[in-house]
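Lab notebook, design round three. We kept the backbone fixed and only want residue identities now. Task for the bench partner: fill in a sequence for the structure below.
Input structure tokens:
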């Protein structure tokens, strides 16, 4: 029996070798090519719908937040909204809104108009201070199909959000004399620097640039730079450099592709982010968020200068792209990466095709037409 089994075994081995040397059927190749790799392994309960606080805001805010709601519903995103009416002319943010954000930990917000003068505090600043949203992140990048003066722009501006001139610490000393305080602390400077380097490290960014005016404000901006340098030494794989804010603005408009991640104090960051947004395609397409240790608010990345434009509101031609991309950031923050990818891909496809664009992007489309196009482009 053993002698008869040996030739049979040899034949089976020859057949197996011949089969392995021949190419696999086309059907097998096709299925192998289309098979997806494991990109996200959820923890138990990750797929449960998450509550998010929604503040439609003023002017165009309800239009663009309404656009986000429509797209979220169309792709059955696991997010539902608790909506609160907040307006920029209020004396303070209602306590129930703060409580909702503390509970949900995430908020999506339209623009809030800040009255000029009159002693009315900015509700945007109030929210950042109350929730300690110390990091503002704005991503300014070229969108395919949208012509701009510069190419290869992909800048992330990370701005300290709770102190400095922009925090509104000012008072009238005597009639006709106003004192505005710029407070810089080592604690806040270190944590914003660490946030910037952590972001660069986790997102495969190569360089962090600190923006400052330490040649004049030697103590305040000097402390900010000292903190950035200390943190930079802990990330030897990331290139670190520094630039004075006035030279930074000139370099941004002449050669923006040299910048990668930028970390800034409060006021400089607002100016740099808006400049970078204008270079990359306009404030209407740049996403952003304000992030703290426990809470996050996502909104249009650069200043929404058209929030109170009544003509845009009446014509219903507000650009929803920035807030749609910000909501994709929110989905990624909530650990729903596939929904974020679908939304981003659909928005970029609509921009690239160029058929449906609002006036700020060279078109004449309405908010609803852009929304309908994005929904149609969802995978």
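Proposed sequence:
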């Amino acid at each position: 029996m053993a002698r008869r089994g040996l030739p049979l075994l040899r034949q089976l081995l020859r057949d197996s070798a011949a089969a392995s040397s021949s190419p696999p059927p086309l059907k097998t190749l096709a299925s192998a090519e289309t098979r997806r790799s494991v990109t996200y392994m959820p923890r138990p309960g990750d797929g449960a719908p998450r509550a998010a606080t929604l503040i439609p805001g003023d002017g165009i805010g309800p239009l663009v937040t309404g656009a986000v709601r429509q797209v979220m519903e169309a792709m059955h995103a696991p997010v539902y909204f608790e909506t609160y009416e907040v307006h920029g002319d209020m004396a303070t943010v209602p306590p129930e809104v703060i409580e909702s954000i503390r509970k949900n930990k995430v908020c999506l917000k339209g623009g809030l108009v800040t009255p000029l003068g009159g002693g009315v505090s900015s509700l945007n600043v109030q929210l950042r201070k109350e929730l300690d949203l110390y990091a503002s992140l704005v991503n300014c990048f070229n969108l395919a199909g949208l012509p701009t003066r510069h190419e290869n722009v992909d800048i992330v501006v990370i701005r300290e959000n709770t102190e400095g001139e922009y925090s509104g610490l000012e008072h009238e000393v005597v009639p006709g004399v106003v004192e505005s305080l710029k407070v810089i602390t080592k604690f806040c400077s270190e944590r914003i620097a660490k946030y910037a380097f952590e972001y660069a490290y986790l997102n495969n960014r190569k360089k962090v640039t600190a923006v400052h005016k330490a040649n004049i404000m030697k103590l305040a901006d000097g402390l900010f730079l000292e903190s950035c340098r200390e943190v930079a030494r802990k990330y030897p794989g990331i290139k670190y450099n520094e630039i004075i804010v006035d030279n930074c603005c000139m370099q941004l408009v002449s050669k923006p592709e040299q910048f990668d991640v930028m970390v800034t104090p409060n006021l400089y960051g607002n100016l740099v982010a808006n400049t970078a947004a204008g270079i990359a395609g306009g404030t209407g397409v740049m996403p952003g968020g304000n992030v703290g240790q426990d809470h996050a608010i996502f909104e249009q990345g650069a200043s929404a200068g058209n929030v109170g434009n009544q003509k845009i509101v009446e014509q219903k031609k507000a650009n929803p792209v920035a807030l749609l991309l910000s909501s994709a950031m929110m989905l990624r923050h909530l650990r729903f990466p596939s929904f974020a990818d679908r939304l981003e891909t659909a928005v970029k496809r609509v921009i690239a095709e160029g058929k449906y664009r609002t006036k700020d992007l060279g078109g004449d489309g309405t908010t609803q037409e852009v929304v309908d196009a994005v929904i149609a482009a969802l995978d």
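Keep this in mind before ordering anything: The domain at 149-280 is CATH 3.40.718.10 (Isopropylmalate Dehydrogenase).
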